[in-house]
Design brief:
By secondary structure, chain A is mostly helical. Chain A contains 3 helices and 2 strands. Chain A starts with a helix and ends in a 6-residue tail after the last strand. Classes of the chains: A mainly alpha (about 90), B alpha/beta (about 475).
Chain lengths: ~90, ~475
């Protein structure tokens, strides 16, 4: 089970607003999903290495060479708000 | 012309027997005819298709075979100048500044019919999680087309364009292909660049062809495969000729039937079609046996930890700062984040962000995320063992045929169970293809074939043999 308090805590970590109704629903649904997922705990996997990427890629490097990328003006054209050639956000609280 | 495969149409365009313009006009008029019933698209682009078809026709030398054949693009792939929503309110006015790398082999004149509907941010198995309406299965308009690439699958089945690109994280190309009676291929992880594909789960996502037949699948894969320095996970492995040995048959090919995916939970009608298909392969000369993938039972659980964990991180970028929706009235930046995400994301996206954040949070990381990554290793080892005995493995693609719209929307677990046959291959990063095997209760059943990393030529050859062995012919729906 996952309590409403836990749901609120996780929603805060994810910076996700939820209504009281959503929190109640989420508590039940996440609980049910977690219960079905818990079966992976049955397996004894001590010492088994984790797989993060199916091709086991590590440290893919490329030459650090300057090249023309997205012009600032274009990148800012998609922003909800921009001031003085910068992204603008509400007051940092 | 509407009845031709993409490959046959491509040849006619190349020989000058018809033009890209004519093909685009036919695609556009088919959209006008059936789109109001099917709702396969978030955005249609009829003028752009014609404009670009003219450019293709004007450039009649040095053309690749795939150019000029009208293509449907899932709305998760960035298309320069054309709105790309990911099925979400979060991106309802988002117009990308560049094209996804997978489209680069089409040049600047990709003839695109439109951007296909999908579950929000590719999370779902029915396309009901779209903010742009439900897509209907062309075989039965009361049923779902599968998902998350349901719009792409429905468009191809309905003939609104000759072929489509979808994306597959845990079955999102294969399952809708199965439910709509078309061919869907998830290539090896890394085979196709993910640059410009708006990320869901980065260690699983892969772009794949959704087509009328296996030959079309091979040709479209040829067009999108290749190394891309802009995607550090794209594989620097030579791209073979996917059409060269397509007709070589399966004589002597060792085919293993996955026992765990032919058991309880798979509808009997689906099992029957898969059995018939296997018999057909045997008749064509394949050596058939059974193989066990013991950890595939844990595939769904591992997937529903790893995928949400990755997406909860990937979707953090939707914060109302650089692009996409921003909630208008927040007094401070934290309230702006919370409200933007509350208003911009739909139910399933919220559920999975929560699930992933929980699985990664302090105190739960080891029990969930770390354990799931170890299960993933076991699944990879299962496949390695299977491929030491067999060339190609077989299973159903989906446990059932297309289900009724609304029948699973209140039960996330029932919806997730749709992915049971598809996620082990995603976790292992191996290529897998769904080919129509026949009908059950009048609805198409997909047969899934899989093979080892980067062996798509063999996989496609086996899939082509299935296509020839079974009692199924592509025909436009609705008629």
């Amino acid at each position: 089970m996952i309590s409403e308090e836990q749901v609120r805590h996780v929603a805060n970590l994810a910076r996700l607003g939820l209504t009281d109704e959503e929190i109640g629903r989420m508590s039940g649904q996440l609980g049910a999903i977690l219960e079905s997922i818990d079966r992976i705990g049955e397996l004894d996997l001590d010492g088994v290495p984790p797989t993060a990427n199916p091709l086991n890629l590590t440290n893919v490097l490329r030459p650090d060479e300057p090249r023309v990328e997205l012009p600032r003006e274009e990148a800012l054209s998609l922003a909800p708000d921009a001031v003085d050639d910068l992204f603008a956000v509400p007051r940092i609280d | 012309m509407l009845d031709l495969t993409a490959h046959a149409l491509a040849k006619k365009i190349q020989s000058g027997e018809t033009s890209a313009r004519e093909a685009a006009e036919i695609a556009n008029s088919r959209v006008e005819e059936v789109e109001s019933d099917v709702n396969a698209f978030v955005t249609t682009t009829p003028e752009l298709a014609l404009e670009r078809a003219d450019l293709v026709d004007a450039r009649n030398e040095d053309r690749n075979l795939w150019e000029g054949v009208p293509l449907v693009v899932k709305d998760v792939l960035s298309t320069r100048g054309v709105r790309t929503t990911c099925g979400s309110q979060m991106l309802k006015d988002f117009t990308p500044l560049y094209d996804a790398s997978a489209l680069s082999n089409f040049g600047d004149d990709l003839v695109m019919v439109g951007k296909a509907n999908m579950d929000e941010f590719a999370m779902g198995s029915s396309t009901e999680n779209s903010s742009y309406g439900v897509t209907r299965n062309p075989w039965d308009l009361e049923r779902v087309p599968g998902g998350s690439s349901g719009g792409s699958a429905a468009a191809v089945a309905a003939g609104m364009g000759w072929w489509a690109l979808g994306t597959d994280t845990g079955g999102s190309v294969r399952q809708p292909a199965a439910l709509c009676g078309i061919v869907g291929l998830k290539p090896t992880y890394g085979r196709v660049s993910r640059y410009g594909l708006i990320a869901f789960a980065s260690s699983l996502d892969q772009i794949g062809p959704m087509t009328r037949d296996v030959r079309d699948s091979a040709l479209l894969l040829q067009a999108i495969a290749g190394h891309d320095p802009r995607d550090s996970t794209s594989a620097n492995v030579e791209v073979p000729d996917y059409l060269a040995n397509l007709e070589d048959g399966v004589r002597g090919l060792r085919v293993g039937v996955v026992t765990e995916l032919m058991e309880e939970g798979i509808d009997s009608g689906v099992q029957e079609i898969v059995q018939k298909t296997i018999a057909g392969l045997e008749e064509a000369g394949a050596e058939v046996g059974e193989v066990s993938l013991p950890h595939s039972r844990y595939g769904l659980a591992a997937y529903y930890i790893i995928a949400p964990a990755e997406l909860s991180s990937n979707l953090a970028r939707f914060d109302g700062v650089r692009y996409g929706y921003r909630s208008p009235d927040a007094s401070g930046v934290h309230e702006m984040y919370r409200q933007t995400r509350e208003e911009g994301f739909g139910d399933e996206a919220k559920r999975r962000i929560m699930l992933g954040t929980y699985a990664l949070s302090s105190g739960y990381y080891d029990a969930y995320y770390a354990q799931a990554q170890k299960v993933r290793t076991r699944i990879v080892e299962d496949f390695r063992g299977a491929f030491s005995q067999y060339d190609v493995l077989v299973s159903p693609t989906s446990p059932s045929v297309a289900f009724e719209i609304g029948s699973k929307t209140d039960d996330p677990l029932a919806m997730y169970a749709q992915d049971v046959c598809a996620v082990p291959m995603s976790l292992a990063g191996i290529p897998a293809i769904s080919v129509p095997g026949g009908l059950s209760d009048g609805l198409p059943v997909g047969v899934q074939l899989m093979s080892d990393h980067f062996t798509e030529p063999m996989l496609l050859r086996a899939a082509r043999a299935v296509e020839q062995a079974v009692d199924f012919e592509f025909a436009l729906k609705p008629q």
